[in-house]
From TrEMBL:
Function: Catalyzes the reversible conversion of ribose-5-phosphate to ribulose 5-phosphate.
EC number of the protein: 5.3.1.6
Residue runs in coiled coils: none
Keyword Phosphoprotein: no
KW Isomerase (keyword) present: yes
The protein's name: Ribose-5-phosphate isomerase A
Keyword line: Isomerase
Length: 221
């Protein structure tokens, strides 16, 4: 069993009867959703809140009852993947393009678990390009601003070479910064830019991290 599957299945064990569960997006979250689908078939009653069309389609196939984030009071637990986690447990997410919905669901969750294989654990964020979700209108102006800052922005493209469209109908600009020295001030600066809908810096947003190592699972609380 690969590391992504191991952490996905482990995280699914944290889900208890009656919970409202935020279902993350990506190749690691995929295994957690599969494991939950199996438990639902065995009689577990939960309500899922999905963070993307991709996860929604998977959960529906598995028969996991779903509600939207607006139909629930609160989310008991969200389980999601991450692209990078630094030594202070700050994260970059959005490689799969679902960062806006993922951050919304995480913000209304009582508890958040990230599931990653060991390759995602880094000293400093930035080797993975930082996704910034932007309004199409004015997006080239944002590209110019990022170029001016030396952030090496690229517009994310789909397989047809067109601008990638998120579930929210936005574009993604990936920032190739190599190293993010001060994630907090970068997040604050991005938050203040008109047209930026969300960015992939997830700071102080996780309670538990399950890391898959070749030598076994590590649980960071
Ligand atoms: C999607 C995400 C994913 O959680 C992140 O990209 C990790 O994906 P994977 O588990 O496929 O490596 O943030 O927007």
């Amino acid at each position: 069993m690969n590391l992504k599957q191991q952490v996905g299945e482990k995280a699914a064990e944290y889900v208890k009867e009656g919970m409202v569960v935020g279902l993350g997006t990506g190749s690691t979250a995929y295994y957690m959703v599969e494991a939950l689908g199996k438990r639902v078939k065995e009689g577990l009653t939960i309500t899922g809140v999905t963070t993307s069309t991709q996860t929604k389609e998977q959960a529906e196939k598995l028969g996991i009852p779903l509600k939207t984030i607006d139909e629930v009071e609160t989310v008991d637990l969200t389980i999601d993947g991450a692209d990078e986690i630094d030594a202070n447990y700050q994260g970059v997410k959005g490689g799969g393009g679902a960062l806006l919905f993922e951050k919304i669901v995480a913000d209304y969750s009582k508890k958040v678990i990230w599931i990653v294989d060991e390759s995602k654990m880094v000293k400093t964020l930035g080797a993975f390009p930082l996704p910034v979700e932007v309004m199409p209108y004015g997006s080239q102006q944002l590209v110019r601003i990022f170029e001016g800052k030396g952030f090496y922005p690229t517009m994310r493209k789909n397989e047809d070479g067109e601008n990638y469209l998120t579930d929210g109908g936005h574009y993604i600009i990936d920032l190739h910064m190599t190293k993010i020295e001060d994630p907090q001030s970068l997040a604050e600066w991005l938050d203040g830019l008109t047209g930026v809908m969300e960015h992939g810096l997830f700071l102080n947003r996780v309670n538990t991290i399950i890391v898959g190592h070749e030598s076994g699972l590590e649980i960071i609380e």
